[in-house]
Design brief:
about 350 residues, Serine Threonine Protein Phosphatase 5, Tetratricopeptide repeat, two-stranded antiparallel sheet, mainly alpha
Length: about 350
């Protein structure tokens, strides 16, 4: 539903039939502009968009995506290797493979401790780097081939944009700003082209564009100067958040990833811990075997002052670790969850003992 959809007069949903209808529409527009941010106003003034599912994910690849979202990264890598022969010319298969590699790389190298999960790498290399880079390069090559055919050019641009976005995230994780900015610029260009050719791809493109617009706007002054000299387009914080929200609700491929990114932004950047907690709780309910979702909910619950909720989700994270993949994740995430749970329990016990 569009913002304020329930308030829109009937004349706004159908062509005006009389001067009175026109007047009602104009009054509605004035009221809306007084209440909305600029981005929201633009969305309020157009009819609700119905984004048809022009992207179709074959069931075998849907299964692999579920494995990734449940934190079964090693299983997903093996599954996609076994299935790629069925989709030799489909960039999506290689993009999904890249996500599996990216998941294990993040789990093994990102800054994860008993208090926080940050998109910063404590370790700058990983044995799965080659698998990730090869998968994304293959997705780029196949996406470029799709772009040569007018019938598949839009989807091809989406896929190449997503591949550039995946590489940008890895470089950003490792504080390789120049490489990350270069890939981000290429991602933005391709995703805008995809939308220009097929507006139905917008919700999936918004995952990358929303992330770009948000971070390009909230960069430190030094990084903004760096961006200026590289001729990298600026961003828009409010637009970025709105695009990520749309992606989280309507994306065919990346809705869950958009929810996770929104949770990270709200929790780490915006200090909106209640909203971040809500997003992470939803992800943890959908994918109970992914300890990172539950652990994120634990940390945001603590920041939001919900002690019991924090303990509950740290317990869920510990259980997910016990039932989850190995490959280095179990030890790192398990240690973080265990330490966080002990700290929270001790704090609760101390509060009870205080007269």
């Amino acid at each position: 539903m569009c913002p304020y959809d329930s308030e829109r007069p009937a004349a706004l949903r159908t062509p005006p039939q009389s001067i009175a209808d026109v007047i009602r529409v104009m009054l509605f527009i004035v009221r809306t502009m007084q209440r909305c941010f600029v981005v929201d106003t633009l969305l309020c003034l157009i009819p609700c968009l119905t984004f048809a599912a022009s992207l179709e994910v074959p069931p075998p690849l849907q299964q692999v995506m579920r494995q990734i979202r449940n934190g079964k990264y090693l299983q997903a890598i093996e599954s996609i290797k076994a299935r790629q022969g069925e989709f030799p010319q489909d960039p999506l298969a290689y993009l999904i493979a890249g996500e599996a590699y990216a998941g294990i790389i993040f789990c093994q190298t990102a800054h994860i401790n008993s208090r926080e999960i940050w998109n910063v790498a404590d370790i700058k290399t990983n044995p799965y780097d080659n698998g990730f880079l090869k998968a994304e390069e293959t997705a780029l090559e196949l996406g470029r081939q799709l772009r040569l055919n007018p019938k598949s050019a839009a989807v091809g641009a989406l896929y190449t944009g997503l591949a550039h976005g995946a590489r940008s995230r890895l470089y950003l994780l490792r504080d390789q700003s120049l490489k990350s900015a270069s890939e981000g610029k290429l991602m933005r260009t391709d995703l805008l082209e995809a939308i220009d050719q097929d507006s139905q791809l917008a919700p999936d493109a918004y995952m990358g564009l929303g992330t770009y617009n948000y971070y390009a706007d909230v960069l430190s002054p030094i990084l903004k100067l760096f961006r200026f000299f590289l001729m990298i387009p600026g961003g828009d914080r409010e637009l970025g958040l709105e695009q990520l929200r749309i992606a989280s609700e309507r994306s065919v491929l990346l809705s869950e990833e958009a929810r996770y990114e929104l949770g990270h932004i709200y929790g780490v950047r915006e200090s909106n811990h209640s909203e971040a907690l809500s997003l992470y709780k939803d992800l943890a309910a959908r994918y109970p075997n992914n300890p990172l979702y539950a652990l994120s909910a634990c940390y945001q619950g603590e920041q939001a002052g919900e002690q019991n909720t924090a303990i509950e989700y740290c317990q869920k994270a510990s259980k997910a670790v016990a039932d989850g993949d190995d490959g280095g994740c179990r030890e790192r995430v398990g240690t973080a969850a265990g330490s966080a749970l002990e700290r929270l329990r001790n704090r609760k016990a101390g509060a009870r003992a205080t007269p």
